[in-house]
Write a structure and sequence with these properties.
The complex is a heterotrimer of chains A (328), B (308) and C (517). Chain B is mostly helical. Chain B is built from 13 helices and no strands. Chain B has a single domain, classed as MetI-like fold (Orthogonal Bundle), CATH 1.10.3720.10. Chain C is built from 15 helices and 19 strands. In chain C, strands 1, 8, 9, 10, 11, 12, 13, 16 and 17 form a nine-stranded mixed β-sheet that branches. Chain C has a four-stranded antiparallel β-sheet with strand order 4-5-7-6, with helices on one face. The chains are: A mainly alpha (328), B mainly alpha (308), C alpha+beta (517). Chains in contact: A-B, A-C, B-C. At the A-B interface, helix 1, helix 6, helix 7, helix 8 and helix 10 of A face helix 6, helix 7, helix 9, helix 11 and helix 12 of B.
C-alpha cells in the first residue's frame, strides 16, 4: 500500500520534471532571451555581458536547476508583451478560468448523469434513443461554433444573457469571483454550457454504459427478486455503484476542461488563463507560454494523483497498472 | 470469382450485416459517410470550379446568395459564394477533402502508433509495459488542441515564417495523431495480454515463430474489431479538432480552406444576413462528424454485444 | 488594484436590467485590442494612445475633426528673432489627478523623458535640441534648424508630473523591447479629463471623470465614467453592441454595418480615416526589381472590386500612399490607374516575365479592416497576370517585426500620419535605411537625392519651397512605383442613438467631447 503511494508520488514528480524540462527548453531555445532583452542594435560586448549575467554559459543542467529553483519560487520571468511578471498575470486570471471550469463541470456532471441514467433505464424507448443520438450533435460541432451560435440566439436575438466577459466580480482576499452577483452568474451560463457540452455527452454515455453493466449484475437480479421497486433498484443500488467510475473519469476530465477553456475563453472574451495563453501564442510570448504549460501540467498531474489516491483509499485491492478505466 | 461470391454470401448472411439492415439510422449514416468520402475523392470531377485556383476567382462574384444571379456578373451558384467570390459548393467539396485527409491521416498515425505500442506492451510485459503505459497516462491528460498549439507555438518561434502555411497541415496531423494513440494502445494491450496466454500462441512459439511474427500474424487479427471502433470515433474527434484549430488560426490556410477554415470565415457573416457562408459548411461538417459518430456507436454496440 | 468590491450592491441592482445597466453618464467602450502600457511614452501605438488621451494631456491636441487646438498650452509661436525656437504659453491653474500643480518644469521633464532611452516617441522629437523653462508657465523648445511643423509632432506627447515621477522612480519610460516594467505601466497621474480607477489587462479598465479637469467648462464633459473592454472576437464585439452590453465600439466589421444601423437604438458614425493601406514590394532584388513588373502589379489590382465587395463601399481607393488629410496631397496624386489586365500582361512580357513568377505575400490578419480578405483578393488578381502568390497571413505581433526585418518581398502595410505632413511618410517609408530613418522602408529603395530632399524638409522655413520639395519627392516615388497603394480606410464607430460623438479621423475618441441626447 505505502509502496504504491510512494511509487505514484514518484511518477508524478517524474512527469512534473519532464514538463518543466519542456518548458525550460522552450524558454531557453525558442525565445532567445538575449535578443529579446537587448534588441537588434546591441554590441557584441553587451551580448557577452548579458549572456554571462544570465548564466547562459553555464552547463545546461545547472541552467535547468536554476530554472526549476526560480519556478519553485513562483518566478516565471516577465511577459515580453506587457513586461509584467508572468506569475502575477496568472494569479490574476486563474480565478476566472477555475470558476468557469467548475461551473461547466457541474453542468456536465448533473445533466450527464441524469440523462445517462434515463437512457439506461429506457434503453429500448424512443425518447432514450433519441437523446442518445441527438447528444452526438454536441460532439459533432466544434466548440467555437456552438459558442457563437449561443451568443447569436441568447445575446443578440433574445437579449437574455451577456455575450462576453465575467460581469461584475467581487474580490475576496485576492480571489475574484463572479458567483456573488447576478450579472456574474448570468455571464457564466453561456460559456459554461459551451465548455461543458462535450464533457456532458461523455459523462452521459459513460453513465449509461456503466449503469447497463451494473444492471446485469447478480445482486441487482437478487434485489429485483426480493421484490424491491424498480425505483429502489435503480437509484438505491444501481446508481450508487455506477457513480464511482463516472466520478473518476469526470475528475480526470477536469484537467482537459481547463485546457479546452482556451476556445471558450476566446469566443466569450473570458478573462482567464486560456485567453492569456492564446494571446501569448500570437505574440510569441514564450515566458507566458512556458508558464501556462507548467501550470496546466501541474494541475493535470495533481488531479491524476488525487484521483489515484482516492481510488486506492476506496478500493485497496486495485493494483498499480489497473487503476484507471479507459476513457474516451 | 466464386470465392468472391461466397465471401459476399457469407457477409450477407452474417449477424453483422443483419444488425446493419435492422438499423435505419446506421444505414443513413453509412450512406452519408460514403457519399461524403466519394465527394472528397472525386472532388476534381464533381466540383463545378477549382476553389484553390485563386486566379479563376472573380471578386465581383462575392457574397452571391444561393440560386440567385449575382448583381454584377449575373452568374448563379447553387450554394452561393463566399467573401472572395468562391463557389461555395466547390469550396465545401474541396474543404471536405482537406478535412478528411487531415482526419484520416491523423487517425492512421494514431492507430499505427497505438497498436504497435499496445502490442509491444501487452506481449513483452515487464518494464516495457510499465514505460509505455505510464507514457499513456501522461499523454491522455494533455488534450490535442493544447499539444497542437504548443507544437505550433514552438514551430513559429523556430521556423522561417514562409514555411508556416506548408507546415500547418503537417503540424495538425502530427498534433492530432500524437494525442489520440492512447485508447488504441490500452485496448490492444489488454487483448494481447489475454491472447498471449492462449494455446495457439504458445504453439506458435513452440514451432519457433519470432515474437514479431506472432504479434503481427496471430494477435493483431484478434484486436482488429475494437481498433476499428476506436478508429471510427477518433476520426470524428480528429475532424472536429481540425476545425477547432483552424478557428484558433492554427489550421488550413484561407487560400486552401478546410471545412473548419470555411466555418471560421463564415461565422463573421452570421449577423449580417449572409447565412449561407456559415450554414452550408457547418451543416456538412455536422453531417460528416455526426454520421461517423453514429457509425462508431453502432459498431461498438454490434462488436460488443454485451451492451446491446 | 482596486477592484469593484465597493460596487457589489450597485452591481446586483444594476444587472437586473442588463441592457440598460449604465446610468446616463457611464460609457461602456469596446474595441478589438487593449492598450499595451499606461506609461505614456513607452509605446507609439493607436490603442495605447487612445486610452492615454483620456488620462493624460499633451500641449496641443487634435479635436474630433482633426484640427489642432490648444490643450495644456494656450498659445504657441516660433520666436520672431530665432525661428529655431518655439515658445509655448502654458495653461494656468491646471492640476494633476493627485492635486499637484502643472507647470513648465513638468513640460521640460516630460519632453526629455520622451526622448530618453526606452521611449518609443523619440523619432517624433528627433529635431529637438533643447527644452527650457522660461518661467513657471512658459517653455521654449529649440530645434536643430527651424522646424515649422514641430507642433504637429506634439499632439501625442503627453505631460507627466515631475514630482510624481521622481517619487515613484519612473524618470524614464520602461523599455518594452528589454522586457522592463515600472510603476507607470499600471499607474497614472495625468491632468486629463479622466482618472484611472482600476485596470486589468485584456479585461477591463475603469476611468472616472476628473472633478478638477481644466477643460470642464470648455468641453461638454458629460461622461462621468468610462468602462473600457477589449473584445478580440469581432462576432462577440458586434454581439455586445447589438445586445446593448456596450455603448460604443470602434471597429464595426463592414459586413455588420447594415445590421447595426438598422437595429433600433443604434447608429453608425462614419468618417474618412487618416490611414492608407498599401502593398510594399522589393525594389532591388528579384522580379519586382523591374519597374515594369511593379507597374504591371499596380494596374492588376482591381481597386474598385476591393472597394465594392471586400470593403462594402467603406474605403477610398487611391493611387498614392498618402491620406487626403496630409500636407502634400493632391487630387492628381490620389488618382489611381484604371484596372487593365491586358496592359499589365504586356508589361510583364516586356520585363521577360510572360510566364510569371512565384512570390510570398506577407499580410497581417488582425490589424487593418479586412486585411486578410484584401490580401486573398490580391492573390487572385496577381494570379491573373501569372504571378503565383503564396499568402502568409499572421497576427500583427509577428507580421510587423518580420517585415521590419526586411526579409519580405511583398507585404501589406497601413500607415497613419499623426503629424498630417508628408515628411512623416517620407522619413519612415521612403528614406534609405539608416540608423534613425527609413525604419519602415524594407523595399531596398534608396536614392540619395531623395534622401537629401527629405532631410531638408526639417529645416525649411519657407512653406512654399517646402511644399515644392514635397511634390518633387512624391513625383520621384510615383515614377519608381515604389509602393502599390490600395485605399484609405473609412472609420465606422457603432454607438447608441443617445450618444452624440463625432468620429475622429485618427480613430482616437476624446470622451470629454461626447454629449448625450
Amino acid at each position: 500500500m505505502l509502496l504504491i503511494i510512494l511509487r505514484r508520488l514518484g511518477q508524478s514528480f517524474f512527469v512534473l520534471f519532464l514538463v518543466a524540462l519542456i518548458s525550460f527548453m522552450m524558454f531557453r531555445y525558442v525565445g532567445n532571451p538575449v535578443d529579446n532583452l537587448l534588441g537588434q542594435e546591441a554590441t557584441v560586448e553587451q551580448r557577452e555581458a548579458l549572456i554571462e549575467a544570465l548564466g547562459l554559459n553555464d552547463p545546461l543542467f545547472i541552467q535547468y536547476f536554476d530554472f526549476v529553483t526560480r519556478v519553485l519560487q513562483f518566478d516565471f520571468g516577465n511577459s515580453y508583451r506587457g513586461a509584467l511578471p508572468v506569475a502575477d498575470m496568472i494569479l490574476e486570471r486563474l480565478p476566472a478560468t477555475l470558476e468557469l471550469a467548475l461551473v461547466s463541470a457541474f453542468f456536465a456532471m448533473f445533466f450527464g448523469v441524469v440523462m445517462g441514467v434515463f437512457t439506461a433505464i429506457n434503453r429500448r424507448g424512443i425518447t432514450g434513443n433519441f437523446i442518445l443520438s441527438s447528444s452526438l450533435i454536441g460532439v459533432s460541432l466544434p466548440t467555437f461554433l456552438i459558442g457563437v451560435l449561443l451568443i447569436w440566439v441568447f445575446s443578440v436575438e433574445l437579449k437574455w444573457l451577456p455575450s462576453f466577459g465575467r460581469g461584475e466580480v467581487v474580490e475576496l482576499g485576492g480571489w475574484t469571483t463572479g458567483f456573488l452577483t447576478v450579472s456574474g452568474l448570468k455571464s457564466l451560463i453561456l460559456p459554461g454550457i459551451t465548455l461543458g457540452l462535450y464533457q456532458m455527452t461523455l459523462i452521459m454515455r459513460l453513465t449509461r454504459a456503466e449503469m447497463l453493466e451494473v444492471l446485469r449484475q447478480d445482486y441487482i437480479k437478487f434485489a429485483r427478486a426480493r421484490g424491491l421497486s424498480e425505483r429502489a433498484v435503480y437509484f438505491g443500488h444501481a446508481l450508487r455503484n455506477t457513480l464511482i467510475p463516472v466520478i473518476t473519469v469526470a475528475g480526470l476530465q477536469l484537467g482537459s476542461i481547463v485546457a479546452f477553456a482556451i476556445i471558450t475563453e476566446t469566443v466569450f472574451q473570458w478573462p482567464g488563463v486560456g485567453l492569456m495563453f492564446i494571446n501569448a501564442v500570437f505574440f510569441v510570448d514564450i515566458p507566458v507560454m512556458s508558464a501556462y504549460l507548467l501550470l496546466v501540467g501541474t494541475l493535470f498531474v495533481m488531479i491524476n494523483l488525487i484521483v489515484d489516491l482516492l481510488y486506492l483509499a476506496i478500493d485497496p485491492r486495485i493494483r498499480d497498472g489497473q487503476l484507471k478505466r479507459q476513457e474516451r | 470469382m466464386s470465392k468472391g461470391n461466397s465471401l459476399m454470401n457469407r457477409f450477407y448472411k452474417s449477424d453483422f450485416f443483419y444488425d446493419f439492415r435492422k438499423s435505419p439510422v446506421t444505414i443513413v449514416s453509412f450512406v452519408v459517410v460514403l457519399a461524403l468520402i466519394l465527394l472528397a475523392v472525386f472532388a476534381d470531377l464533381i466540383a463545378p470550379t477549382d476553389p484553390f485556383d485563386a486566379k479563376s476567382l472573380n471578386l465581383f462574384n462575392g457574397f452571391t446568395p444561393p440560386m440567385e444571379p449575382n448583381a454584377f456578373t449575373g452568374e448563379t451558384f447553387t450554394l452561393g459564394t463566399d467573401d472572395q467570390g468562391r463557389d461555395l459548393l466547390s469550396a465545401i467539396i474541396f474543404g471536405l477533402r482537406v478535412s478528411l485527409f487531415v482526419g484520416l491521416t491523423a487517425v492512421i498515425l494514431a492507430m499505427v502508433l497505438g497498436v504497435s505500442l499496445g502490442l509491444l506492451a501487452g506481449y513483452r510485459g515487464g518494464w516495457v509495459d510499465s514505460v509505455i503505459m505510464r507514457a499513456a497516462d501522461i499523454q491522455v491528460t494533455f488534450p490535442s488542441i493544447l499539444i497542437a498549439m504548443l507544437i505550433f507555438g514552438i514551430a513559429r518561434g523556430l521556423l522561417p515564417p514562409d514555411l508556416r502555411d506548408e507546415l500547418a497541415i503537417t503540424v495538425l496531423i502530427i498534433a492530432i495523431g500524437l494525442s489520440e494513440w492512447v485508447p488504441f494502445a490500452r485496448t490492444v494491450r489488454g487483448t494481447t495480454m489475454v491472447e498471449k496466454e492462449k494455446e495457439y500462441v504458445k504453439a506458435a512459439r513452440l514451432i519457433g515463430l519470432s515474437g514479431r511474427q506472432i504479434m503481427l500474424r496471430h494477435i493483431l487479427p484478434n484486436v482488429l474489431s475494437p481498433v476499428l471502433v476506436i478508429a471510427t470515433i477518433t476520426l470524428a474527434l480528429a475532424i472536429i479538432a481540425e476545425a477547432t484549430l483552424s478557428f484558433l488560426g492554427v489550421g488550413a490556410p484561407p487560400t486552401e480552406p478546410s471545412l473548419g477554415t470555411l466555418i471560421r470565415i463564415g461565422q463573421d457573416f452570421l449577423f449580417s444576413g449572409e447565412w449561407w457562408i456559415l450554414l452550408f459548411p457547418a451543416a456538412t461538417l455536422l453531417a460528416l462528424a455526426l454520421s461517423v459518430n453514429l457509425l462508431g456507436d453502432w459498431l461498438r454496440d454490434t462488436l460488443n454485444p454485451r451492451l446491446k | 488594484m482596486n477592484k469593484l468590491s465597493t460596487k457589489l450592491a450597485l452591481g446586483v441592482v444594476a444587472s437586473l436590467t442588463l441592457s440598460t445597466l449604465a446610468s446616463a453618464e457611464t460609457i461602456r467602450w469596446a474595441r478589438a485590442g487593449d492598450s499595451l502600457t499606461m506609461d505614456p511614452h513607452a509605446q507609439n501605438e493607436g490603442p495605447t494612445h487612445a486610452l492615454a488621451h483620456q488620462i493624460y494631456d499633451s500641449l496641443l491636441q487634435r479635436d474630433m475633426s482633426g484640427a489642432i487646438i490648444p490643450s495644456l498650452a494656450t498659445e504657441w509661436a516660433a520666436l520672431s528673432d530665432n525661428p529655431n525656437v518655439w515658445r509655448f504659453k502654458l495653461r494656468q491653474g491646471v492640476t494633476y489627478h493627485d492635486g499637484a500643480t502643472f507647470d513648465s518644469e513638468d513640460v521640460v521633464f516630460s519632453i526629455n523623458r520622451a526622448m530618453a532611452d526606452g521611449s518609443d516617441m523619440k523619432e517624433l522629437l528627433s529635431s529637438v535640441k533643447d527644452v527650457r523653462a522660461v518661467d513657471s508657465h512658459t517653455v521654449d523648445i529649440e530645434t536643430n534648424g527651424a522646424n515649422p511643423l514641430l507642433v504637429n509632432n506634439l499632439t501625442n506627447m503627453f505631460m507627466m508630473d515631475k514630482g510624481w515621477a521622481e517619487a515613484n522612480d519612473v524618470l524614464t519610460p520602461h523599455d518594452v523591447a528589454k522586457g522592463e516594467t515600472n510603476f507607470a505601466t499600471m499607474n497614472t497621474n495625468g491632468t486629463g479629463a479622466f482618472a484611472l480607477v482600476s485596470r486589468s489587462i485584456d479585461e477591463k479598465t475603469v476611468l472616472t471623470a476628473n472633478p478638477n479637469y481644466w477643460g470642464k467648462d470648455l468641453y461638454p464633459s458629460e461622461v462621468t465614467e468610462i468602462i473600457y473592454t477589449p473584445i478580440q472576437s469581432s462576432a462577440t464585439r458586434v454581439a455586445a453592441l447589438l445586445s446593448g452590453e456596450v455603448d460604443i465600439i470602434q471597429d464595426v466589421p463592414v459586413q455588420d454595418l447594415g445590421r447595426v444601423s438598422s437595429t433600433s437604438g443604434l447608429k453608425v458614425g462614419t468618417a474618412a480615416q487618416n490611414r492608407v493601406i498599401f502593398f510594399g514590394v522589393d525594389n532591388v532584388d528579384g522580379p519586382t526589381a523591374d519597374l515594369r513588373v511593379r507597374q504591371a502589379m499596380n494596374i492588376a489590382i482591381n481597386r474598385d472590386a476591393i472597394k465594392q465587395v471586400v470593403m462594402r463601399e467603406q474605403s477610398d481607393p487611391t493611387g498614392v500612399i498618402m491620406p487626403p488629410f496630409v500636407n502634400g496631397w493632391t487630387p492628381a496624386l490620389n488618382e489611381y490607374p484604371a484596372y487593365d489586365l491586358d496592359k499589365a500582361k504586356g508589361l510583364m512580357a516586356e520585363a521577360g516575365y510572360a510566364d510569371g513568377f512565384d512570390i510570398t505575400l506577407n499580410c497581417p490578419n488582425d490589424r487593418y479592416i479586412n486585411d486578410e480578405s484584401i490580401c486573398q483578393a490580391a492573390v487572385g488578381m496577381m494570379g491573373q497576370i501569372g504571378i503565383n502568390v503564396t499568402l502568409d497571413a499572421k497576427p500583427k505581433a509577428q507580421h510587423f517585426p518580420f517585415i521590419k526585418g526586411g526579409d519580405s518581398d511583398f507585404y501589406m502595410l497601413g500607415w497613419g500620419v499623426p503629424t498630417f505632413d508628408s515628411h512623416y511618410i517620407f522619413n519612415f517609408l521612403v528614406h534609405s535605411r539608416t540608423g534613425d530613418r527609413g525604419s519602415w522602408n524594407p523595399t531596398g529603395y534608396s536614392d540619395s537625392a531623395v534622401d537629401q530632399m527629405i532631410v531638408s524638409l526639417e529645416s525649411e522655413t519657407d512653406l512654399a519651397t517646402r511644399d515644392a520639395t514635397i511634390a518633387k519627392i512624391w513625383d520621384a516615388i510615383q515614377a519608381q512605383q515604389m509602393y502599390l497603394p490600395i485605399h484609405n480606410q473609412v472609420l465606422n464607430w457603432g454607438m447608441k442613438d443617445g450618444i452624440n460623438f463625432a468620429v475622429q479621423p485618427e480613430d482616437q475618441p476624446h470622451f470629454q467631447f461626447l454629449t448625450f441626447n
